[in-house]
């Protein structure tokens, strides 16, 4: 059996952060195991911005954030094995692994971090009656099919659940020219961040039906519509050909089953979404990096790592009042308004004040899109926020461009397509 100081199970944002934190704190026999063929977890399908705001102070996309973390790992001595599925965690830090290249292996470690992420709650777990036609997806499935596969999942979708993933998928559909019929939310308020409600729903005119839920599906071979029950008992039929559910995540913790009903052994540490569901990747990664550092110090005689995770600090999504707007610079979603003598009130930082002044002149947003190049889905982004009115022209210019593989991360593929003061760049390496 091969022995390590630390084995990290899962190569998503939390797993990469835990391995980096341990290495930075002095651990040298560190192994990172990832079941997929590449690192990043779900990040490669998240082509929108909003990652890295706390860790890097930049608006990165999911592929950009994953690439930056992976590049940091390459500069360390952390051993990374992809296509390696962990089958079992056993007594004394024993890890049974099935590798696509090396077969069945048994490894040991003084400490094991479980960073296997989370899975979506499927439609079958919801109290929805009716038939089971084609056209029902979870938000993660829809995101993967749209962004990585380039599939047409439907022309008129209803989204059940107003969490951040659901709202982000709603915006992606709108950018593809297929705005959803509505987002349906059972609670009396939006379930996601204020910044996402504004830039994903309100700015695209997508209705948000609060205190409502989907109770019945209609259709045979393909979904034809859903019945929505309102708080007052009314039932409305919404014609649609796709239902996308965004109703929560569940920690992927099956590897902990042998330890259920008892305190976890001292060598085993869940982190990230495998421990609890986070609202932001940055927060999950920060907690995982902290855990990795504390494990490395503990292995060298320091105090045992803290097992509790920091609580999310994002406030509930408030609604702006008269003369107010929600700052979109970070997840805090500060309420901004005009102050005395031309100042700005409510801004938590300098970015908020600059954002408010820009909004009074013109709304500018990041545009991300995906194009198909020689059968490969290539995510692009503007190099700076652009006026909302230019989204359509810039997207059309990107789809008309003659592109060829390979393409590198950050490569400019469409230079200022219409003298609009922006370029279009590739989000991640796309080899031929």
Strand content range = 25-35%
Number of strands: 29
Weakly predicted, low-confidence segments: none
- Give the CA-CA distance, first to last residue: 38 Å
CATH architecture of the largest domain: 3-Layer(bba) Sandwich
Alpha carbon gyration radius: 23 Å
Question: Would you tell me the overall average pLDDT?
Answer: 92
**DSSP helix count?**
8
Q: How does this model look, in words?
A:
The structure is a single chain. The protein is an alpha/beta fold. It has four domains: 168 residues, FAD/NAD(P)-binding domain (3-Layer(bba) Sandwich), CATH 3.50.50.60; 125 residues, FAD/NAD(P)-binding domain, CATH 3.50.50; 38 residues, no CATH class; 59 residues, CPE0013-like fold. The chain is 22% helix and 29% strand. It has eight helices and 29 strands. The strands form eight sheets. Strands 1, 2, 5, 6, 7, 8 and 20 form a seven-stranded mixed beta sheet that branches. It has a five-stranded parallel beta sheet with strand order 11-18-12-13-14. A hairpin with a 5-residue loop joins β22 and β23. α1 packs parallel to α6 and α4 packs parallel to α5. The chain is globular, with a radius of gyration of 23 Å. 44% of the residues are buried.
